[in-house]
Amino acid sequence: MINSSEFLDSLEEKGFSFATGVPCSYFSRLINEFERFESISYIPATREDEAIGIASGVAFGGARALVIMQNSGFATIGDALTSLAQLYKLPMLLIISWRGLEPDRDFPEHSLMGEVTEKALMAYRVPYWELKTEDWQETIESAFTKMNETSQPVVLLVKQGVF
Amino acid sequence: MYGYEIIQELASFLSGDEIIVSSNGNISRQVYHYLPRPQIYLRGSMGLPVAVGLGVALARPEKQILSIVGDGNLLMGLGSLSTTSFVRPLNLKILIIDNNSYATTGNQMTTSGSLDYPSLLDGFGIPGIVPILLDDSVEQVAEKIHIWLNSSGLCVLPALVDAKSPALANIPLHPEEIAALQRK
């Protein structure tokens, strides 16, 4: 399991000062951590596309935001990505739970999206990495480097139990 | 009054130091043609201009941010009024230009005719100015814009207008340039 406090410390060091998104139970510890973590300000969004809009505004203003959501929410942000964040080259880090895999066998609402999550990311041409407990620092480094080189949104996919 | 006339009227009230986030379609074109440049001209992302304005306001607390939305755009992202009310940025002002139609796509009607803006804003807990009405004089419009821009903190000015849009050339800037110009 990744220590949420260490994870946010690492993102703060990378220059992230804002976070927004819509919760997933996979991220309950991480989102709770924002209450104690004052250097990254968390704004609860009403929808995932709104969160991309907020993060885009933050990027227009020269700061950096991370965006938290379920993969069900990824299914709602196609236009926010393609006609805003990707079109205007606005860097941001999306942290997306990978619902619909084996641990979610009793949650059929996630099944199809779980199966097509990687295909959907590829279709939208969003670079992504699976965030794993054992090498999360290296993964963040790779994603952050890509985000800066391309000035584009990048995604970290997170399975159950990582946070 | 027409929506584009409100945007033209806005010109004489701006210091030039504000950052405007304009909505996809006619409003971005009008802001590009009638107001100081550069601004953040959105071309897509219908429903998100208030959210983008909120993000810019957070990242640039030293700047006054003006988000200009039409009624169709506002309704698509209505939840952003709740988010904005909750965050309550001191440097964000929102102008709603309501012509009761999706004017950019050919004046198809929206459902905004049933809205009562003072009650709506009150319900969201957002301070608002008395709406600009269809038969307001130029002086009354100017007065409301003046009060709105000089209000302290988050404030919304709704404007009920007639739908007519001048034919304006497309914005010649690529979106990447629009973003880059904000970093200078």
Describe this structure in words.
With 163 residues, chain A is an alpha/beta fold. Chain A has seven helices and six strands, in the order αβαβαβααβαβαβ. A six-stranded parallel β-sheet of chain A has the order 2-1-3-4-6-5, sandwiched between helices. Chain A is globular and about 40 Å long. Chain B is an alpha/beta fold and 184 residues long. Chain B has eight helices and seven strands. A five-stranded parallel β-sheet of chain B has the order 2-1-3-4-7, sandwiched between helices. Chain B has a two-stranded antiparallel sheet with strand order 5-6. In chain B, α1 packs parallel to α2. The longest helix of chain B is centred in the last third of the chain and has 13 residues. Chain B is globular. The model of chain B has no long low-confidence stretch (mean pLDDT 97). At the A-B interface, β2, α3 and α5 of A face α3, α5 and α8 of B.
Mean pLDDT of chain B: 97
Helices of chain A, by number, come to: 7
- Helix % of chain A is 40-55%
What's the number of extended β-strand segments of chain A? 6
Round the Cα radius of gyration of chain A to an integer and report it: 14 Å
Determine the number of helices of chain B (DSSP H or I, runs of at least 4 residues). Answer: 8
Backbone structural class of chain B: alpha/beta
The end-to-end span of chain A amounts to 5 Å
Query: What do the pLDDT scores of chain A average to?
Result: 97
Low-confidence stretches of chain A: none
**Strands side by side in the biggest sheet of chain A:** 2-1-3-4-6-5
Question: What assembly state would you assign to the polypeptide chains in this entry?
Answer: heterodimer
Main sheet strand line-up of chain B: 2-1-3-4-7
Percentage of residues in DSSP E strands of chain B: 15-25%
The end-to-end distance of chain B, rounded to whole angstroms, is 36 Å
Rg measurement of chain B, Å: 15 Å
